[in-house]
Amino acid sequence: MHLSPSMERYVLHWGEMGSRWGVNRSVSQIHALLYLSARPLHAEEISETLNIARSNVSTSLKELQGWDLVHMVHVLGDRRDHFEAPHDLWQMLLTIANARKQREIAPTLSTLRKCVLDGSEESDIPAESLKRMEDMLEFIANLTNWYEQVSKLPKGTLVKIMKLGAKVAKLIGK
Fold this sequence. Notes:
The protein has helices at 5-20, 25-36, 43-50, 54-66, 89-121, 127-151, 155-164, 167-172; strands at 41-42, 71-75, 78-84. The chain is mainly α. Strands 1-3-2 form a 3-stranded antiparallel β-sheet. The chain is elongated.
């Protein structure tokens, strides 16, 4: 696959952003390439296009499939597995948010609940420390509940809410 200069810049930047978010650079670059591609690509083509080792491509594709960000498809007349990324940005955002919620937020909530429960039974914990743990638990629980509600809204509604931005404050009253 030929990458124009702006496509190459996009893929390279997505790789750098991914590494800042804790995702392997190759994984992010492959995701960016598949997102930009007009057609499904096979692993050898991904490897050649990005100049990444074939084994690294295979590992990265498995990780992307685990995140549900890449799907395997079959192309008539070609026995190789091909891969594509969904092009719906809202679907991508919600998929990433849900995966991060499961991998990061759920264990954090569980630990916070245990800390608050245990802390409330400890005689030597400062009241201010316990209050801060309770506040953090409440904040993350509220954020999680908000996400659960928002993620179920139709895409059109989500777009309207996003475009409203700070105008939402006017609707609900300052």
